[in-house]
Specification:
Blueprint (H helix, E strand, L loop, with lengths): L1 H10 L5 H12 L7 H4 L1 H30 E6 L5 H13 L3 E7 L1 H12 L21 E6 L5 H9 L4 E5 L3
Antiparallel strand pairs: 1-3, 1-4, 2-3
Helix pairs in contact: 1-2
Length: 170
């Protein structure tokens, strides 16, 4: 059907008979490129976009997942003693597969919170607090070795007496 329209349109153009026949033949015949990328240009473009998306997204997702798996924050029960917190720290440092253990004080937790959430138009909220509202937010930041099973270590930490939660930052 489409070819008939072309043929009719070409019939109205003033050309020599030979030029008209060559033009009709050229328009009705399918031309294929010898270059495979040009022959399948759409398919190649889709494949390249998919490959580029995978190349960009997968490492970012993998890095995020690795960060979540290998960084564990250990939070304590409400009425835990300082001695028990120190004991838990010693247990964490001796635990197989743990790369490092760092105690995060309540003041440091409050500073991190303020710098992350109370900036710009919300900076005035800092002045509304006479004392640290995160006074019970001290925790341990545990970094797990790359070849260790972070899920297993998280489960071991969760079983320790006095630990309220072991996971992502609260």
């Amino acid at each position: 059907m489409e070819n008939q329209k072309w043929i009719r349109a070409l019939g109205e153009i003033k050309l020599s008979e030979k030029a008209r026949e060559e033009l009709i033949d050229y328009c009705t015949r399918r031309q294929h490129s010898a270059n495979i990328l040009l022959r399948y240009a759409r398919l190649a473009a889709v494949c390249m976009c998919a490959a580029l998306s995978l190349a960009v997204c997968c490492p970012a997702y993998a890095a995020y997942h690795l960060y979540q798996e290998k960084n564990i924050y250990v939070y304590f029960e409400k009425d835990i003693t300082e001695e028990r917190i120190a004991e838990i720290g010693e247990v964490l440092e001796r635990m197989e597969g743990v790369y490092s253990v760092r105690f995060v004080s309540a003041d440091e937790a409050w500073d991190v919170f303020q710098n992350q959430y109370l900036t710009g138009e919300y900076a005035y909220l800092r002045d509304l607090f006479a004392e640290n509202p995160l006074s019970n937010s001290y925790n341990y930041h545990v970094t797990v070795e790359l070849d260790a099973d972070g899920k297993e270590i998280r489960e071991q930490i969760q079983k320790l007496e006095g630990v309220r939660a072991a996971g992502e930052r609260e």
